[in-house]
């Protein structure tokens, strides 16, 4: 497993009990580094590095995804600058952002 | 790269560092977001003039000169007493019209002891001020609220915070009018990089200068896939800009569904107001409205994050140019390209406005 993706998974996993506000399967495709799959249809949400079909797939490099979830950059700005492709339902990429802001806020606290 | 020929005798002198960026007084400027003005003093420099803003108990916005005529203490450092403002230095008290109503150390009030009052109008999200001749302050000159996107039933609006930019307002204006920078300064965020190869239609429809780009086969960027919530790869798209000289812009993007071209487009509408604080600094106000995902907090937050990220890139360019202009180094003759047609037209209009107001002839004329 990629250490950076593992760190992102741990940060997201720490907020799994939070209300994600949207029920769907999200995949962050980090290319050669692998994937991160966030399933908010499960209660609590699950996060995994095993590939699977998703409702929304975002291509984003692991260092940039980390910048979003550790609060170094506003989530929306990180998505705007660093998401290089969206497949599936693009609106879901916006709907998951409030949850990722919670992850970032918890990481900062 | 193609260049455009000078447009008459003033063209070479309407330089970035020249006449066209002088300040204009007889115009409505945005001085604050409505939510910024509370029942508490707010000091803001407008056209080199310190202005005090506050809201009365009845909710009316007051704009007064922010200088106590006694010993020049900024009145915005004072405190409100009911609807009056008391100077924090020696206690002089002025009412909402600027009239001095009390001097604690004496019974008489000198006739020159008053604060100048400025016409001010609150229209939905923004507060507008008139710094020039009050007799000319015609409220019908303020752009309509629906046109700006405020309060329109089909739109929801996000009123972003304002920023003080270290650049002259002319640089801010020209950043907005010039869309070819999108392909470079904002690389990859709005479009695929082809914008620079298409020319805008530019026309003057008093009171604004209009530019419109339309691309039938625009490749949609990942950012726009998310923001507009559309999944098509290519779609007809228009970018329309209205510049209301000297300092207000309305810009909107129309995203059409390629499978249903007659369907109402998704529209993102941005109103911007650039109010000179000084000759080299500008209050930058920005409000964004959209006719999709209305009042959806996830989209509001995304739009807020991204609009500041985009504008940070604009500020980077504007402030770098301003810093250079401030160094006073000898500059090469400015060159303009064909795509600068909108800017050149705006400069001619600005030159005319400044000339009319000052009674001064434009440089080179």
What does this structure look like?
- The complex is a heterodimer of chains A (109) and B (365).
- The radius of gyration of chain A is 12 Å and the shape is globular.
- Chain A is an alpha+beta fold.
- Chain A has helices at residues 3-13, 62-69, 75-82, 92-95, 97-108, and strands at residues 25-29, 35-39, 46-48, 56-59, 85-88.
- The model of chain A has no long low-confidence stretch (mean pLDDT 94).
- Chain A has a five-stranded mixed β-sheet, covered by helices on one side.
- The longest helix of chain A has 12 residues, at 97-108.
- With 365 residues, chain B is α+β, with helices and mostly antiparallel strands.
- Chain B has five helices and 18 strands.
- Chain B has helices at 145-148, 169-177, 222-228, 297-326, 341-358, and strands at 28-33, 42-46, 49-55, 61-65, 79-81, 84-86, 93-94, 100-102, 120-123, 126-130, 156-159, 163-165, 201-205, 208-219, 234-244, 248-255, 266-276, 282-290.
- The A-B interface holds A 21, 58-59, 74-77, 79-81, 83-86, 88-91, 93-95, 97-98, 101 and B 189, 222-223, 225-227, 229-231, 293, 297-299, 301-306, 308-310.
Which assembly state applies to the chains in this document? heterodimer
Average pLDDT number of chain A: 94
| Top CATH class of the largest domain in chain B | Alpha Beta
Spatial shape of chain B? globular
Main sheet: strands, sense, barrel of chain B? 8 strands, antiparallel
**SS-based structural class of chain B?**
alpha+beta
> In total, how many beta strands of chain A?
5
Percent helix range of chain B: 10-25%
**Count of structural domains of chain A:** 1
Largest interface, C-beta closer than 8 angstroms, per-chain residues:
A-B, 24 and 22 residues
């Amino acid at each position: 497993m990629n250490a950076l993706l593992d760190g992102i998974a741990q940060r997201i996993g720490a907020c799994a009990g939070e209300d994600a506000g949207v029920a769907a399967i999200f995949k962050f495709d980090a290319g050669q580094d692998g994937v991160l799959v966030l399933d908010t249809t499960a209660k609590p949400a699950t996060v995994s590095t095993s590939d699977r079909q998703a409702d929304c797939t975002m291509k984003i490099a692991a260092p940039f995804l980390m910048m979003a979830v550790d609060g170094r950059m506003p989530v929306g700005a990180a998505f705007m600058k660093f998401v290089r492709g969206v497949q599936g339902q693009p609106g879901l990429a916006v709907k998951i952002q409030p949850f990722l802001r919670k992850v970032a806020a918890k990481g900062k606290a | 790269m193609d260049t455009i020929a000078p447009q008459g005798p003033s063209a070479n002198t309407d330089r970035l560092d020249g006449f066209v960026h002088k300040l204009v007084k007889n115009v409505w400027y945005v001085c604050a977001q409505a939510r910024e003005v509370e029942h508490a003093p707010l000091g803001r420099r407008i056209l080199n003039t310190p202005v005090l803003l506050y809201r009365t108990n009845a909710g009316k916005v007051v704009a007064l000169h922010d200088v106590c005529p006694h010993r020049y203490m900024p009145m915005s450092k004072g405190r409100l007493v009911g609807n009056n403002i008391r100077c924090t230095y020696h206690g002089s008290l002025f009412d909402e019209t600027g009239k001095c109503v009390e001097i604690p150390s004496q019974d008489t009030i000198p006739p020159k002891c008053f604060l100048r009052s400025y016409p001010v109008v609150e229209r939905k999200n923004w507060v507008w001020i008139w710094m020039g001749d009050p007799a000319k302050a015609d409220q019908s000159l303020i752009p309509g609220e629906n046109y700006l996107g405020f309060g329109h039933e089909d739109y929801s609006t996000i009123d972003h915070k304002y920023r003080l930019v270290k650049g002259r307002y002319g640089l801010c204006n020209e950043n907005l009018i010039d869309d070819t920078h999108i392909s470079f300064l904002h690389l990859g965020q709005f479009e695929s990089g082809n914008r620079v190869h298409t020319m805008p239609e530019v026309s003057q429809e008093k009171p604004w200068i209009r530019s419109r780009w339309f691309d039938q086969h625009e490749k949609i960027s990942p950012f726009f896939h998310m923001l507009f919530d559309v999944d098509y790869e290519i779609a007809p798209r228009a970018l329309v800009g209205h510049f209301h000289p000297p300092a207000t812009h309305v810009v909107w993007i129309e995203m059409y569904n390629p499978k249903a071209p007659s369907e109402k487009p998704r529209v993102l509408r941005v109103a911007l107001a650039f109010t000179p604080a000084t000759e080299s600094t500008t209050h930058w106000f920005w409000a964004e409205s959209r006719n999709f995902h209305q009042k959806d907090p996830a989209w509001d937050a995304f739009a807020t994050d991204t609009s500041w990220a985009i504008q940070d890139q604009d500020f980077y360019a504007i402030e770098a140019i301003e810093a250079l202009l401030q160094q006073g180094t000898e500059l090469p003759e400015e060159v303009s390209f064909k795509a600068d047609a909108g800017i050149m037209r705006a400069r001619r209009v600005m030159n005319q406005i400044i000339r009319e107001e000052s009674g001064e002839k434009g440089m080179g004329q």
